[in-house]
Amino acid sequence: MHVQAGGPAGGGRKPNAQLLIIVAAVVAIAVIIGGGVWYANSSGDKGKDDTASSNGGTGGDDKGGSSSKGSEKVPSDPSSKVLFQIPQPEVAKDDSVVVEGSWLTDKVYAKSGIAEIVGYDPDKGTKLWTIPLPGPVCEASRHVSQDNKTAVLFQPKMPAKNSSEGCSQVAAIDLDTGKKLWTKTATSGDQPISFDNVTVSANTVAVGSSSGGAAFDLATGDALWTPKPADTCYDSGYGGGVKLVAVRKCGSYDERELHIQTIDPKSGKVISEYKMSKGIEYASVVSTDPLVVAADVGDSAGDGSGISDFFSIDNKTGKLLTRISAPGDNYAAECDGITRVEDCSGIAIGNDRLYLPTEEHDGSGEYSRTNEVVVFDLATGKQTGQRADAGDGYTITPLRMDGGNVIAYKRPPYDKGGQIVSIDGGSFKQTTLLENPATDSVRDVETTMSPEYSEILYAQGHLYMSDVYASGSSSGSQEYLAIAFGTSG
């Protein structure tokens, strides 16, 4: 078993770290003038990949929406208890530091802290190892290789308050041993490139930016390709997991053409290509196998979700299979395709199906809210008619596939604990795998880890919820970086 962190799995909008830095800088300048301001899949083995991702980036092998036995066991008692809590690290007042990245293997739960990655015992929470870094993590791959290696981007040193030193450092880490395997950079001219995203596919680490893309051998760090100054197009980012997919940008702004390319992870050779309509400025890779891309066509979503349409594409030929309209005012999924090409949440893909949560709406009780998960066929683009209701007062968010079943998190009403459920891919019957305590002290922590802004990992009766930002606060109350729950049966 290994489970990787997806982006936040839900209907809100996760703040972009670079945007926060830019905004902070503008605020700081204004103060000076006026007075004299952060979803998975394992690589290589398709069958293993089905249970790996917290954002459901790649699908299962089962076709036609039929149920398939997953690997998640149904406990005799789904009631959970708190296994451990990790306090939030200290941060200066009014400052915010990215702590993105969490991974789960058979041996370790790993979580990014401030300028470090720490491995914890999955049951006890005791520290097993620490990987120190010179600066904060900027981005973390949600994919892990078959031998439990992954990759991160980080700053070369600690930045000043509400600023950045650039995300120029690429590193591979071994989650089993707690070792940093190598650190690499790439340059544009004589300047290091600040990368926007990182992913892992097979034995390749791929990073993208507005200066182009680069790739390194996961085991050795050897460069596989780097940006070419003469290129008129550039790889802005990559989607990883079972396959490696590049989002390649050509042309000037407003005349942009995006090429969605399935590429060989060793050589970068293009296997297939789909050219999106001109004028679509940004696209996100939701899944690499089957290949599904999301875009906000004509900026029509209007709600900040980054999604108006999904594009189902044939990996082998590059042919568009279908285009699915998913207006942001109807569906709660989201993508941040501006720089974070793989940062999608609230989506699961499997059984040749796309599973989406609807936006919240009034429930049957007074003041209650609820939603559903609905299903689209990736071949026809039509809804299948299947629907999973969250239940009154709950809201449901798909996390990933488990064989032919969907694993989802149900955010609770005021008097309940959250739940993890398995939705049968055929009957759409829900089975509760885990239910958290309803006590106020536990709920207070759980509800701070909302699906909109947190990393949520579940496997074999264990649920891990963690933050992606550590922020300075003057409230004096204890805040947590992560909380772990577990069942006994």
Walk me through the structure.
- By secondary structure, the protein is mainly β.
- It contains three helices and 41 strands.
- The strands form twelve sheets. Strands 1-4-5-6-7 form a five-stranded antiparallel sheet, with no helix packed on it. Strands 2-41-39-38 form a four-stranded antiparallel sheet, with helices on one face.
- The longest helix is centred in the first third of the chain and has 18 residues, at 17-34.
- Residues 6-67 have low confidence and may be disordered.
Write the layout of secondary structure elements.
Blueprint: E1 2-4, H1 17-34, H2 46-49, E2 80-87, E3 96-98, E4 102-105, E5 109-113, E6 116-120, E7 127-132, E8 137-140, E9 149-154, E10 169-174, E11 179-184, E12 187-188, E13 191-192, E14 197-201, E15 204-208, E16 214-217, E17 223-225, E18 233-239, E19 244-250, E20 257-263, E21 270-275, E22 284-288, E23 291-295, E24 309-313, E25 320-325, E26 334-335, E27 344-345, E28 348-350, E29 353-357, E30 361-362, E31 369-370, E32 372-377, E33 383-389, E34 395-402, E35 405-411, E36 419-423, E37 430-435, H3 440-446, E38 454-459, E39 462-467, E40 469-471, E41 480-487
Antiparallel strand pairs: 1-4, 2-41, 3-40, 4-5, 5-6, 6-7, 8-9, 9-10, 10-11, 12-13, 14-15, 15-16, 16-17, 18-19, 19-20, 20-21, 22-23, 23-24, 24-25, 26-27, 28-29, 29-32, 30-31, 32-33, 34-35, 35-36, 36-37, 38-39, 39-41
